[in-house]
Amino acid sequence: MFSKLQKIKESILEFFIRGSGILIILFVVLIFLFLLKDSLFFFKSYPLKDFFTQKKWLPISEPPSFGIIPLLLGSIYVTFFAIIICVPLGMGCAMFIAEVAPSFLRNILKSFVEILAAIPSVVLGFIGIVWLGPLVKKIFSIPTGMCGFTGSLLLAFMALPTIISISEDALRSVPYTYKEAAFGLGATKWQTLWRVILPAASSGIIAAIMLGIGRVIGETMVVMMVTGNSPIIPSSILEPLRTLTATIASEMGETVRGGLHYFALFSVGLILFIITFIINFLADLFLHRSKK
Amino acid sequence: MVEPLIKIINLSAYFGNLCVLKNLNIEIYKNEILGIIGPANSGKTTFLRALNRLNYLQANYHQKGKILLEGKDIREIKDSILRKKIGIVFALPQVLPMSIYENVAYGPKVHGLRKREHLDSIVEEALKKAYLWEEVKDRLHTPANKLSGGQQQRLCIARVLAVEPEVILYDEPCSGLDPISTAKIEEAMRVLQENYTQILVTNNTKQAARVTQRCAFFLMGELIESNATSILFTSPEDKRTDDYIRGRFG
After folding, report:
1. Which of A74, A27, A28, A26 is nearest to A268 (CA)?
2. Domains of chain B, first to last
3. Which terminus of chain B is more solvent-facing, meaning fewer CB atoms within 10 Å of its CB: N or C?
4. Nearest Cβ partner for A178 among B96, B110, B159
């Protein structure tokens, strides 16, 4: 009797766990299909070629022009500069935490990094509008501080915790024996870090950077608040621009449900989904290679 | 009387409050192979690592007493210079995650050597001295971790030789190796004796008897006795040494 009850209990538990696992896959597939379906509606009435070659995003002019290039470039610009800023900073911080800092400082730093990750993006956006934007405007003497660079700075800030904690893990998982061997040959702390530990941790570090990029490219609130929201092809990072994410978020409210503009935004979403998917996939690839 | 190359005076070593070496006095002479034997936890490895200050990688380590290298206190020598002079081969082969060539060239590069031809000749020479050249000369640029355990350990010896040390420390270098690899390493040690001073920590008393000229017996952090190997193994002064060598404990 008891064993039968036990068996039922276990099979329910197993069913539940298996169900949760499958559900996650199902969700991703469904989201993809959902985006794909609405995008196909869009491409039925708007040529795919124009979507990728038109240089203007004018959804409400007559006839409308849905060129994704300005938005794509906006995202690429902001992401590129954010990565340029946060990778050296994050790597430096990770190296300091993993190899240099005494243990009490390491614990303090790690908890601060976690707090950094917990700051809501809208708060950062707020800081961007009130303080960072005007500062950028003053420093570069440009007409407005609401530009790509301000967004890059804030996004760099947001990607830091991801990059720091994952690359710190990678650095710390380098076998202690490597360090001993290098020190035993008379290498200094820096030579060991630079020539032995960094190369050994490189795939984990690349994965960290990829995940950081994924975080930056998908971020919406901050870029919508501080990048100036103008969907034109930016000629420099110091000009207002608009990213893929900000476009969807700011225009979705104004569209007619089921209209061409509505479906166009889904296509933008699909492109974004594909980009982040590829980035996460690459990150995973590197992460697994480092475990081997 | 010859001046010793290394002179250790009243050396005591601690990890936190735990005393692992107690008031040690021993001298090491040029071009000899000194064996250090003793059961586990008797401070052999700590003693070895005290010589090139590797113990200081542990945060809670501290020591008292003096270690003189050619009459000079090693505390006055920079770590990187000291470790160049006194190289170490660890118990488990610690190859770095790079090619065979890069592993050997790493040490000289760290010490500022850049010239390609010069590095090439150093690598070849070091590998030859470690009895490894013939086995790897055609695949110098393949990853070093593809080598067998015995080859990896000889690679580690070559790596130490490449920085041209005066003293080589071995920390149970054959503990994980088969008899043939062990024989090759012992052969390398015998040949190296001509130019280097070597200190061998080993759990294998027979190995100590085979390759060393002098031997020291450690027990619980104390140096019980040291003497010429032939004397220590045939007529030890201390009963505990006798017991250990005859395999009554340890």
Report:
1. A74
2. 6-245 (3.40.50.300)
3. N
4. B96
| pLDDT of res. B65 | 92
Please, which residues bridge with residue B228 across strands? B214
A-B interface: how many C-beta pairs under 8 angstroms?
68
Our separate counts of H helices and E strands in chain B read 10, 10
Contacts of B160 in chain A (CB under 8 A): 184-185
pLDDT of residue A98: 92
Give tens-digit pLDDT for B62-97: 999 999 999 889 999 999 999 999 999 998 888 888
Residues in a beta bridge with A159: none
SS3 call for B58 = coil
Q: What is the pLDDT of residue B91?
A: 87
Q: How far apart are CA A168 and CA A161, in angstroms?
A: 10
pLDDT in tens, A251-280: 998 888 888 999 999 999 999 999 999 998
pTM (2 d.p.): 0.79
Q: Determine whether the interchain pair B54/A178 forms a contact, defined as Cβ–Cβ distance below 8 Å.
A: no
Two tokens, residue B239: 């009963």
Half-sphere exposure in the Cβ direction for B32 (13 Å, CA): 21
Q: Give chain A's largest Cα–Cα span.
A: 81
